[in-house]
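<instruction>
Derive structure tokens from the sequence
<entry> Chain with its tokenised backbone below:
===
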Amino acid sequence: MAAYSIFSMPRDLDPSARRWRRHALARLAVAWLAMMQVMMLAWPGYLRRADMAPGVLATLDSAIVLMNWASLVLTVPVMLYSVWPVWRGAAVSLRKGRIGMDVPVALGLLAAFVPSVVSTWSRQGHVYFDSATMFGAFLLTARYLELCARQSTPAAGPMAGVEALRPVLVAWADRLATPFIVIQLLLTVAAVLAWQSAGGGTEMALAVAVAMLVISCPCAMAMAVPTAMAAARAVLLARPDLSDEAVAGLQSAMIRKARGSLLGAMAWHLLLMPLAMLGWMAPQIAALTMLASSLAVAGNAWALRRRYLASVAVHALP
């Protein structure tokens, strides 16, 4: 039997789902290409120091202005094309009068992009185009993993029992994640007001807001259920001869894995939020931690497949 991979396109995937997956991959590619270029263009800004020689400082400032405009041009496709599903999802959630998982993501992107455009136009203040593109690229990476996990294998035979657990797990995850997101957004507003009242300045308050909104991205939490289900499907695909008792055990293990990943992602958010509130975490580092938590959730779920297949193999030995 060929090696299983969640990145393999299912043969029975309908045309609309295939189109959506191709567009998701294209959006991801655009975001990563833009991010790598913008990160290079942002480098002169990190080198600037007030104690530089006046001539060097003037030359560097002129280069930074040019780099900021180039970064803006490269960031616009990410904001208009790559993260378009985020804008649509946030709009749908707000029209329904609820705060979905796309709302904090949209706020984080806007908090990084809009002030950066103003700073580029006025030639004053910091820009966060690197944070915006990095956040978008890492966000789309996590969501592409989630999409591949959901589409990984068809539900047939024992897989139908695994698929039947999806609504229960998704409903439980939503009930837990929604108030958690609201609390994070309220903490972000409180932190910005606190920095402003303490005289920290608008730029510092903005950096704190961007970092906190990036950390509040529920990407890892959204991946908990589909990645655990993909791992269970992979076990069933590799061992379709499992007994009913073994399948029931696998379903229980899948539920535990999904809940553990969700609670672990929430704990990670709670651990990092105070660091961002105190201004000890740059937006770029916050984006890296968001990607790390998403990859950790995927790896934790895939460990279920490895361990379960290993235990089944051991019990099958004579």
